[in-house]
Specification:
Elements (H helix, E strand, L loop, with lengths): L1 H5 L1 E8 L6 H4 L7 E5 L9 H4 L4 H9 L3 E5 L5 E7 L3 E7 L5 H5 L5 E7 L14 E2 L3
Parallel strand pairs: 1-2, 2-3
Antiparallel strand pairs: 1-4, 3-7, 4-5, 5-6
Protein name: PLD phosphodiesterase domain-containing protein
Organism: Nocardia coubleae
Length: about 130
């Protein structure tokens, strides 16, 4: 998976939960975007308040220039990547971006590559999402 992200020109992701080391597994930068499970105002059910979404990782991505969106019911695990070699890769799987998913769980992931001339898949969730701002 790190090979895909090393070649990424732009990344768009929808990943429900992100752990304390998420930026190591999914390096996001200016022009990239991610939707995670969460709400702008903490509640007892909010993933950020419960610790299943690490706010420090969100800040790290935000500081790198990525757009961060919060969706209260998101459970997706999808990443769309534009690659330098004129293809798009779509990563579909069961894993969240966390050390627990990386090291402890049995997860499944498929990486699909398509030429740029095909219609690219992008991960977005506009219905019910809130853009995170400083």
């Amino acid at each position: 998976m790190k090979d895909v992200f090393a070649e990424a020109q732009r990344t768009s992701a929808a990943i429900a939960f992100v752990g304390h080391n998420a930026a190591e597994f999914l390096p996001l930068r200016h022009g990239d975007s991610i939707v995670v499970n969460g709400t702008p105002r903490p509640t007892k059910l909010d993933s950020i308040a419960r610790g299943t979404v690490d706010p420090h990782q969100l800040q790290r991505w935000f500081d790198a220039g990525a757009a961060i969106y919060l969706h209260p019911w998101l459970h997706a695990k999808l990443i769309a990547v534009e690659l330098a070699n004129e293809t798009h890769a779509t990563v579909i799987g069961s894993a969240n971006v966390s050390q627990h998913a990386q090291n402890d769980l049995e997860e499944g992931t498929a990486v699909l590559s398509i030429p740029t001339s095909s219609r690219p898949c992008t991960a977005q969730s506009s219905n019910g999402s809130t853009k995170l701002t400083p």
